[in-house]
Give the backbone structure.
Amino acid sequence: MTNMESGAVTPLLKTDALGRVRTPAARRERLLDEFERSGMSGLQFAAFVGIKYQTFATWAQQRRRRRKPAVSSKSAGQADATKQVRWMEAVLEQAQSPTESNGSALVVHLPGGARAEVGELKQVPLVVALVRALAQPPGAC
């Protein structure tokens, strides 16, 4: 790129000795934050932002390692109570009327082994309210 005023040539992207594009740490962190909010797979997100998947996967792995707390020998055998919730979108292609019920249901597994079974479309808001209430810190209700 040429600076029109001074005529100097300035590179758009910094590269290393092998010609690879260098991404500043702050930009990597912003991209990883955006990825976590996006709901996309790593492969989809890397293609979306124009980064090689292997590079993106390395960034994500390094970030996970930095964030992982040191595990003491006392808590190594205990189950992690702070497991991260992963959401998946479910799309109902065609609603069934109550007379067409085929006995199928959506089962939502809740913390502590409890489960909520949704057999009718009108029950979905109740399960959504339940999951949101469970996500609140204790005493926030």
Q: What stands out?
A: The mean pLDDT is 74. DSSP finds four helices and two strands in the chain. The longest strand covers residues 106-109.
